[in-house]
Amino acid sequence: MYLKKIEIPYHVYQYEVFIKRLKPGPLRDDLTSLYKRAMAGFRGEQSLDFPLSYLPNDDFFIFHDLRLFDGLHHFQIDFLVLCSRFALILEVKNIIGKLTFDTEFNQLIRELDDTTDVYDDPILQAEYLKTQLGEWLERHYGISIPIVDRVVIASSAQLQVTDLKSDKIKKIVRRAKLKAELLQLNQQFAKDYLSPETMKKIADQLLANHHPRVIKKFTTRLKPDDLIKGVQCPNCGTLSMIRKTRTWYCHSCDRTSKNAHIEALYDYLHIYGPKITNKKCREFLKFNAESTVKKLLHSFSERYEGGTKSRSYFLSKRLLKTR
Ligand SMILES: [Zn+2]
């Protein structure tokens, strides 16, 4: 069963918001290509839902996109599958073209049309994650459990390897083969290492220690005028709705919306983080009614700090999501 279901990661939503609100320029171009790459990766991960569904539901905990801290660095696991007998790490690649796994120089070479790109070796990445997770479990629980790592190719890329004799290439699994691989691993490991209580405890700790990736560095590249402020029309996408008698009105398409401000607050949260003041909110919404904005901030914030004049609110993703 999924304990952390397959979801678009937070930082990918951030890309989306920046692309929507940035004026054309190099920053928007960079973010657009990062977004496309991240979404292709996500779609590859999403496509593993089917083979993973063959695992006996009650025996296996599945975590999608888990990002843990080892005390020095974060490490991110596309899928972690945990049962009482072993843990499985899946590093997913959804790259099209011709892929060459160079196990000698630890690189993945992709040829597509007339271009050659070199990527980090996913086999090495998966091995690294295996070590990191092993140490994490050891440190938190004094537990050592067999950990298996696999690189799953979700695309229909043509695959080749530089060394057919290398043991490492056995770790590469095509998506179509994943179901068979999972069932084989399930048979291979017979000995129980974890009691149901320990498994539950580890699962809770994994979830509590998940640190979603949040991108802050773009805001340092951002000049105040780069972002388009305003409330976006849900019908035509124009970012210039105005407030008229308790509803938002779009000049471009003549439509109205009751809740268009919620999307704008959601955008604010993904750009600047949860902290916001009444003044900043009015600037962002391009709407200058202090008392209405105060009401909005109260209904979408989980808490606030400071006195009436200098109050800061903390927008809640959960409250905004109920929109
Ligand atoms: Zn409109």
Describe this structure in words.
This is NERD domain-containing protein. Pfam families: NERD. The protein is of the alpha/beta class and 323 residues long. It has helices spanning 10-21, 26-46, 49-52, 122-141, 175-188, 196-208, 217-221, 260-272, 278-285, 290-300, 317-321; strands at 2-4, 61-69, 74-82, 87-93, 98-102, 107-112, 115-120, 147-153, 158-161, 172-174, 242-244, 247-249, 256-257, 275-277, 301-305, 312-315. The strands form four sheets. Strands 1-2-3-4-8-10 form a six-stranded mixed β-sheet. Strands 7-6-5-9 form a four-stranded mixed β-sheet. A hairpin with a 4-residue loop joins strand 2 and strand 3 (74-82). The chain starts with a strand and ends with a helix. The mean pLDDT is 93. Residues 233, 235-236, 238, 250, 252-253, 255 line the site of zinc ion.
